[in-house]
Amino acid sequence: MEAVSLSMLVGAVSAALVSGAKDVTENAVKDTYSAIKSKISELFGAESKPSQAMQLYEDNTDVEAYKTVMEAEFQRHNVLTNDSLQKLTAQLIDALQQTEQGSAQFSKYVNQGETTIGLQGDSVTVYGDVVGKKM
């Protein structure tokens, strides 16, 4: 299994919430998201900073600052050193990629492709184009 990065975990959680995992849209996404949330609570405690940050972001997905706090708490507590969370995150990413909406949302949160940016400028005005390649 390929190692899961912190940005992949945060991206998957974000995509799951935005694609409707807190509602009853897709069972696999909802179930795996819930398993991640429960595992974080089990490992660090229901009142721990990672659990609280995840709940705040779940309640306020439209506020970018809550996602940033969640990512910082996940990093501070080294949540991805746990094999179970690695596996659950990989499962959530797989589940998200099975649906059009989930895949689109996940792609928004995690750059999975190659991006080439070409720019020209005269120190004042910049002209350029962006070419992306999805892998």
What's the SSE pattern? HHHHHHEE
Number of H/I helices: 6
Find the count of extended strands (DSSP E, 2+ residues): 2
Strand order of the largest sheet: 1-2
Biggest β-sheet, characterized? 2 strands, antiparallel
Overall mean pLDDT: 79
- Uncertain spans, ≥5 residues at pLDDT below 50? none
Q: Beta fraction of the residues?
A: 5-15%
Features:
135 residues; two-stranded antiparallel ribbon; mainly alpha; globular; 59% helix; 6 helices
What does this structure look like?
With 135 residues, the protein is mostly helical. It has six helices and two strands, in the order H-H-H-H-H-H-E-E. A hairpin with a 4-residue loop joins strand 1 and strand 2. The chain is globular and about 35 Å long.
A few lines on this structure:
This protein is mostly helical and 135 residues long. The chain has helices spanning 6-18, 27-44, 49-59, 64-76, 83-97, 100-109; strands at 114-121, 126-133.
